[in-house]
Amino acid sequence: MRRPASLRGRVTLGVLALLSVILAGLFTAVDVALSARLHADARTRLTDRVALAQQLQGTVSGQRLADRLRGDGVVVRLCVADGSSCATAASDPPPPGAGRPRGERPKRPDITPTATIPVETAGSVLFVRSTLPGNQVLTLSLDTTQISEAVNRLIVLEVAGGLLALLLAGFASARISRAALRPLEDMTAVARQIAAGDRGQRLDVPRSDTELGRTAVAFDAMLDELEAGEGRMRAFLSDASHELRTPLAGLQASAELLLRENPGREQRERLAVAMVRESRRAARLVDDLLTMARLGQGMPLVTERADLLALAAAEVERARSLSPGLSFKIGGDGDTYVEGDPMRLGQVITNLLDNARHATPAGGRVSVRVHRDGPRVRLEVSDTGPGVPAAERALIFERFGRGDASRSRHTGGAGLGLPIARGLAQAHGGDLTYLDTGPGATFRLDLPAAGPAQI
């Protein structure tokens, strides 16, 4: 049989198969147990009557004894051993209730247990033979055809009832599974609508406390995140193309000027310097974009034990040479070792110092402090610039985000420095935050401290 293609069909088929196995096992067990019980009762009936005959022998005549033993399908034959005379009693029982008041159940005679009497079988007939005192042979027989017919009738009823139960179970299972799996069909319909261009479709299930309800809620959340990610990607591409257009436009203008005119040496040098400056700016932007992409995919880090204070001191010397009009101060205390990539950590510090240099006016001061705080090592970079307004503090960590007061294309760059710095900090198991500590801006780099050095 071909396997159903739909989940509902497979569920219904699985329920019917399981129910069929259960019913078959149950009916078989009932039939076997009932047949064994009825045959055991028939054997007990014969052996009990043989014991009763042994007790009554000598107190009643042979025919009276045969009549006493008959009934319930038992055929009695009592003969003298030489076969000269026999007394028989048919198995037809007396009419129901005959010889006893209405509602009174017949009493079973008291029977003294005797030795085990073997019951023999001949086809469908059970019989026992026993020699009684007075050289008499008692033969009791019982036809079990009625037992077999009763069991067969029960089997027919079980089969008919089982088929009806399977039919009802299949119908109920199909209805229940259809109702239970409706959220999946809704998901399929929504997915097709979204694939067709209708991106605003959602499931909006009324209940989220079921398995499918939680799946539908997760499906809606996934769609929201995908749409948000798509929006961020479009904004990123738009901002990146906008940022790249500026240096490329400068390169194009300088190149066209060199081609159209025949400038003098001094002007050619100015144009060459401008082209080098714009090409470096474009290259830096491309590097930043590549770094952002790698951060999103999991940037590989070459980790080793590094002194964050020593890395900060080297970057401060670089910043001091680039901005001689500013005052730089660095200090630290405690064990400032971390496990990280020295090159990437230096890049974080460089971004923080460049951000501080561009935001600090001439004659200002940039301070760097590195210290141990329990299981963490913290680096704080402060400046005496205008600071970041409260409304813009979340924006500065967004890609291409800038604060209007101190960051622009001319003074700060493309707006990728702080997002890259935060991404690198998080890749090291830390974070980069803005501290509202008063005048100027303060950024804190928080990293897990390194363990004891291996000797």
TrEMBL record:
EC number: 2.7.13.3
Bias (Basic and acidic residues) ranges: 101-110
Spans through the membrane: none
Enzyme class name: transferase
Keyword Transmembrane belongs to the record: yes
Main location: membrane
Superkingdom of the organism of origin: Bacteria
MF GO annotations: kinase activity
Span of domain HAMP: 178-231
Cellular location(s): Cell membrane
Keywords: Kinase, Membrane, Phosphoprotein, Transferase, Transmembrane, Transmembrane helix, Two-component regulatory system
Region: Disordered, residue numbers: 86-114
Keyword check for Flavoprotein: no
Annotated Histidine kinase domain residues: 239-451
Reaction(s) the record says it catalyses: ATP + protein L-histidine = ADP + protein N-phospho-L-histidine
Protein name from the UniProt record: histidine kinase
